[in-house]
Give the backbone structure.
Amino acid sequence: MTKIEKAGKQAVQRVKSAAGRVRNKATALVTDVADKKAVRQAKDAATRARARTKALATEVSGKVTGRKSKQKKKKVAAAVAGAAAVAAVAGVAMTRKRKRKRGWLK
């Protein structure tokens, strides 16, 4: 009886070790394939395509909801405010320069 139990245990152990070897070999093969240049390039292309699709979807949804035009208006307003601030600073600098030249500011 013990001989049969031993044989069964050994068979189970052999199956387990064989499964482990197969698993390791499969992992090695997958790693080899993943390292190939063509596979890397395909992954990069897929990533680029996903990013482009997402950007396009965002742009379309912005146009549909009117968010795009609001963003443009905000940009223009910010540019105008920035230009006004720069002009004001430049104007103050020119005024000071003129006053210094004329002797009003010492």
About this structure: The CA atoms of residues 18 and 24 lie 10 Å apart.
